[in-house]
Amino acid sequence: MSDDPTSSATAVADPPAADESLFGTFDAEGNYIPREIVENDLGAGLDDAYSASMVEVKDGQLVTGTVVQVDHDEVLLDIGYKSEGVIPSRELSIRNDVDPSEIVSLGDSLDALVLTKEDKDGRLILSKKRAQYELAWGKIEEIKEAEGMVSGPVIEVVKGGLILDIGLRGFLPASLVELRRVRDLQPYVGKVLEAKIIELDKNRNNVVLSRRAWLEETQREQREEFLENLKPGERRSGVVSSVVNFGAFVDLGGMDGLVHVSELSWKHVDHPSSVVAVGDEIEVQVLEVDLDRERISLSLKATQQDPWEEFASGHRVGELVYGRVTKLVPFGAFVQVGDGIEGLVHISEMSAHHVELPEQVVTPGEELWVKVIDLDLQRRRISLSIKQAAEGGVVAAEYQEHFGEHAYDESGNYVGPSGEIDEAWAEYYEEAGLDPATGQPKVVETPAEPEPAPGEGNGAMAAALADAGLAAPEAPEAEPVAVAEPAAEVAAAPDADGEGETTA
Q1: Could you tell me which of 339, 350, 347, 259 has the C-alpha nearest to residue 299?
Q2: What is d(CA 384, CA 392) in angstroms, rounded to the nearest whole number?
Q3: How confident is the model over 84-135, as pLDDT tens digits?
Q4: Diameter of the chain by CA atoms?
Q5: How far is CA 452 from CA 219, 458, 478, in A?
Q6: Per-residue model confidence (pLDDT) at position 496
Q7: Is 77 a residue whose pLDDT tops 80?
Q8: What sections of 44-86 are H helices per DSSP?
Q9: What per-residue confidence (pLDDT) applies to 347?
Q10: H runs (alpha helix) in 27-89
Q11: 396 and 403 in contact (C-beta within 8 Å)?
């Protein structure tokens, strides 16, 4: 073995000596002696060295930085650029009119998108909101493809629905908030809702959500069980949830069913709102359950008695009923004889004489007696007759009860109460000044005034003068009245010779 210390095989090489010009040195006692700074010590120009330490940015780039200042209208973000980036308050959040201090704090690390590398003032303009959009879109697209759900707080009520913060502004239509339409959306502000993405358009920055779809999916088993237990023909209580032109929706306690306008009432319905209103508690009958489409058809009128059946059960052909003329047609007139019940008086049954036009006999709104001559419950048709009603007949029981049992004879014909007709005519004659016996104007005879006896006529005057303290005038003496004596007393009867003896 060679003793040569320089031999590479046997000798350990000394560590390379440090370059004192780069790192400095230490003295014998271990104290550090810094290196000497000389011109061009960086190995390059100062500007080049400064530029090399800065981050390169360009418009549309995503950057990360630290909040170094928060003002009322902007936030400064240090991203390692030659100057801090400025985030205007409008670019901080997807919410409108927010206070920057409510969104960020000093020292927060934020993602931001470069809007303008240098504005007219040489500032770097950033956007936290746009960065949030960019980062969220990728995640939202993945959730949409996987048919997943998103969640976020309701931040705003807009026309037609709600705005959810799901990293970007998601629109939730009012019709898709619940299983049934909600009219007041304000209570949802601040609540965290789960929803399904049903429409996504990045170019238009449009995201449409459906909470109803999520509810339907989560409640599918409950709905299936509810529908299976719901049988046609049974009656259920419910609350009217909405009223539309074609009917009304009723909440049966889990699902809504539709009562079509034709099933609201036995009468004609101009609009469903004339029958029911939102919030009404009603009883309905199940007509049909569609399991495939999850639709329930309901009926309100089925829970009410059919007025046609009610009329048919209480009336028979040949009875007299009271009605009101509703409309005239070329072939006759329709008369309402019950609630929602109209019958036809054919023109041939309007009068005993020939009638050319219905208006020659009746007018709309006129009330009159008619006779039921035909009743077809199956076809819901009633034939009536004014002509036959004039001939008399049995009055329907409902009117007998109204007028009283005394108004009818044993056969049910109307005769009126005892003396009622006579009393009515007597009253009429009295008011008209007619003689009840003849119906003719009364003949009034003026009685002759009696002649007062002599001196009788002055009796009242004398009394009045006496009361006044005056003397009554003396009555004139009456002249003697010559009274003719009978001829037999004045002259004697003539004798046979014709001469008579005069007596004193």
Answers
A1: 259
A2: 14
A3: 888 888 888 777 777 888 888 888 888 888 888 777 777 888 888 888 777 7
A4: 247
A5: 115, 9, 16
A6: 39
A7: yes
A8: 46-52
A9: 92
A10: 46-52
A11: no
Helices 211-218, 220-229: inter-axial angle, 10-degree rounding:
60
Q: Which domains can be identified in the chain, with CATH numbers? A: 147-218 (2.40.50.140), 234-302 (2.40.50.140), 307-403 (2.40.50.140)
Instruction: Show the DSSP H helices in 306-432 as ranges.
Output: 307-314, 386-390, 397-403, 420-432
Strands 295-299 and 256-260: parallel
Residue 25: pLDDT above 60? yes
CB 49 within 8 A of CB 42: yes
Q: Give backbone dihedrals phi and psi of 142, rounded to 5 degrees, phi first.
A: -65, -40
Closest listed residue to residue 137, CA positions, set 195, 79, 204, 88: 204
Cα 456 from Cα 461, distance rounded (Å): 10
Closest to 82 measured CA to CA, from 113, 118, 45: 118
Reported residue count of the chain is: 504
Encoded amino acid at 142, one letter: E
CA distance 395 to 337: 13
Residue 134: its pLDDT value, please?
78
Number of Cβ within a 10 Å radius of residue 95 = 15
What confidence tens digit (pLDDT) does each residue in 197-213 have? Answer: 988 887 787 889 999 88
pTM: 0.37
Provide the CB-side half-sphere exposure for 452 (13 A, CA).
7
Instruction: Give the span between the Cα atoms of 331 and 350, in whole angstroms.
Output: 10
Query: Do 341 and 308 form a contact (C-beta atoms < 8 A)?
Result: yes
* Amino acid letter, 273: S
Lowest mean pLDDT among 238-242, 368-372, 409-413, 433-437: 409-413
What b/e sequence results for 350-388 when a residue is b if at least 16 CB atoms lie within 10 Å of its CB, and e otherwise? beeeebeebeebbeeeeebbbbbbebeeeeeebbbbbbb
Residue 361 contacts by C-beta under 8 Å, 6 or more apart in sequence? 333, 350, 351, 355, 386
